[in-house]
Every structure is written in C-alpha cells, then in structure tokens.
Amino acid sequence: MKRIITRAAAVAALTAAAAGMLAAPAHAEGDGKVGTLGWDSQGDSEAADNDKGGRNVWALVRDDSHPDGSPPVRADFYARGEQLHLQDNHADGHKVVAHLTVAGEGTATFVGGGWRNLSFAEGKAVSLRVCLGNTGVCSNKYGGGRT
Prior knowledge:
This protein has one helix and ten strands; from the N terminus they run αββββββββββ. By secondary structure, it is mainly beta. It has one domain (27-146). The strands form two sheets. The protein has a six-stranded antiparallel β-sheet, with no helix packed on it. A four-stranded antiparallel β-sheet has the order 7-6-9-10, with no helix packed on it. Strand 2 (39-47) and strand 3 (55-63) form a beta hairpin.
C-alpha cells in the first residue's frame, strides 16, 4: 500500500510540475524579466557599419535585484566580419553561453567569454540568446540580425 501511495504522489507531483512548465513559456520575445526573479533581459539589433544590408544583434541578462544592478552576461553578433563576442561580467563561476541561430544553418552554442570568427553566406537572418551557464537564467531570444 505504501508503494502505491508513493508512486501516486510522485505521478501527481510530476504532472503538476509539467503543467506548470507548459502553462507559459519561460522566455518570451523582447525585453523584460526572465526566468528567475530579479533577472532582466535586454537586446536589440542595429544596422552594421560598413556592411551593406548587415545588421548586428546583441542580448544580455543581468541580476536586477542588486541596488546598482549587476554586470551583465552579454553576447554581440557583428555582421561585418561575422564575429561573435561573449562577455561574462558576472563573477559567479558560471560561464557565459550564447545560442546563435542563423537561417538555413541552424543554432550553434558557444561557451565562455571571448571573440569567435565565424563565416556565413550574406543576407541570412540571425537571432541570439545568452545564458548564465547552465543555471536556466537566459535572455529572451533577440532577432533582427543579418549576415
């Protein structure tokens, strides 16, 4: 009897957890609060200098619960030269993780701060999302970039 109650309790807990996860997406598009209380997501795209038709895109997430905010975890895609720059300014032992999606190419994941030199055909749509390691704290996904 005890085993049935334990299994039933486990099934009920998993069902409740799954319902909570399916109720709303953890990260909507655009700026605003994300995932964990106190974390703020920002990002945007802009025309790239000296790259006709190219658009840069950036995303960041920061702990907004501190009085002066916290240094962000940030990723920038630069259309000119097709470079990705990851910044990990949040001293917590977790590495910055960026998810870069390029139309027709798929999504690539990059771990750790620094510069990456990439190469894509011109004119492809680009979107970007940045995370604080594998903590589940991520920015929203920002599009509008173009190679």
